[in-house]
Amino acid sequence: MNVITTRDTINEAVDVFHLDREGYPDLVPLGIPPLDNELGGLGPGALGVLASATGVGKSSTVLAAMLASHIKVGYISAEDGPDVVGTRLLSALTGINSMRIRRKDLDEEELAAIAKAAKASKLDHMFFSYPLGGRCALVEAAIREMGERGCRLVWCDYLQCIHVHGRERRQEINEVMSRIQEAGQNAGVAVMLISQFRRLGDGEKVPQIYHLKESGDIENKARIIVLAHKVAESKDNRIRYRLAKSTYGGEYICYDMVRDSSGTLKHARLFDVAEDF
Fold it and tell me: Are the C-beta atoms of 191 and 181 separated by less than 8 Å?
């Protein structure tokens, strides 16, 4: 272990944030304006977590961020395959509901829109991997290859689907996070892990960090933790996101997204009046 001085530590911070020269810090934006505008993004090799209950919209949130990103980004799905992810992407690009795409309940104009979207150059900054069975070694390999392709941010969906066999569950989660963090550091990419909550009771509609499965290990390793939940009784399928932990500050950050008629999530002002669709 290398021991350094106070001056070395300060000089490292000066170098990372370009405080001694022109230009901006080499931070990795998440594609989420409320977080990027305040935090600037994550550092290369940093680990963050986005968590919500089942059915809230974790995967849709990730795809919205990826589509909005101006850097190369990767998406590792240990849960859904290309048919599910691809359908969600087509919905976001065309405004056609994903259920209608799955049934091919489409007219000629919509089929033409899908054909055009499938060839859109705006998708060239996105890369995908679908590791069979969620084996951690395959996830690590995908992170490494995405780094080689120029990705600066990789989303992993989701933590509880990634496995290291032969370990007790808490030890397994701890090892998975350590290995993914190391893979990100070696590849020079920031990693955002998607995680689940344990089942919440009726009185726990607004989640806290301790509602995370294996919350202690997750909280210790993550630089930021974003928690998402459905807004009770909203008429516009509203999801609220809160920055619950940040080693950079900004725990006050809160923002909303709403699901449109295609099933795609869009950013909304926090206190918009809910609309009837």
Answer: yes
Domains and CATH numbers, the chain: 44-225 (3.40.50.300)
Span 242-253, pLDDT tens digits: 999 999 999 999
Measured distance CA(129)–CA(154) in Å, rounded: 10
| C-alpha span between 200 and 59 (Å, rounded) | 20
Closest CA to 77 of 168, 187, 144, 162: 162
CA pair distance 60, 85, nearest whole angstrom: 9
Cβ atoms 265, 249 nearer than 8 A: no
Gap between the Cα atoms of 157 and 179, Å rounded: 15
- Cα maximum dimension of the chain: 68
Q: How many CA atoms lie within 13 A of 113 on its CB side?
A: 15
Distance CA 36, CA 57 (A): 20
Give the per-residue pLDDT at 197. Answer: 86
CA pair distance 255, 159, nearest whole angstrom? 23
**pTM recorded for the entire structure:** 0.89
**Helices and strands per DSSP (H, E), number in the chain:** 9, 9
